[in-house]
Design brief:
132 residues, two-stranded antiparallel sheet, 5% strand
């Protein structure tokens, strides 16, 4: 579903203007621009991402039709429910749906910090433990 369609549904369900929630829905679906398949939702359509957006945007946004406030969390949960047959998955739910084999060509970077950063961090820890 397009983010504008989600905003239309929100306007009806939350009795607000389409533009009141358009930005929220656009951010929720932003991963689609980089991964244009339904699996893009793994990154944003989950309880963790909803919490991150709520922390960044704030708990509420104005409802320009009523003068009241809209719960960001409620709007984003509803977005997920619209896309996932009434469910709001967790990251764990998503990961249980994935086969997790690391291809050989990705082993060089996957969970492998740069050596220079590991060495710098060790130096910093030694300096921190031996204050002057």
């Amino acid at each position: 579903m397009h983010y504008y369609d989600h905003a239309l549904l929100s306007a009806k369900k939350f009795k607000c203007d389409v533009n009141d929630t358009l930005k929220l829905h656009k951010v929720m679906d932003s991963s689609k621009f980089y991964m244009p398949v339904s699996q893009h939702r793994l990154f944003s359509h989950n309880t963790w991402f909803i919490q991150v957006l709520t922390d960044l945007i704030g708990e509420v946004v104005p409802n320009t039709l009523t003068g009241e406030m809209l719960s960001v969390r409620d709007v984003l949960y509803e977005h997920c429910k619209e896309d996932h047959n009434g469910r709001v998955p967790s990251i764990q739910d998503w990961l249980q749906c994935l086969k997790f084999d690391i291809p050989d060509e990705h082993r060089i970077w996957f969970n492998n910090p740069r050596l220079s950063d590991k060495m710098l961090l060790n130096t910093l820890r030694v300096e921190q433990s031996n204050p002057k």
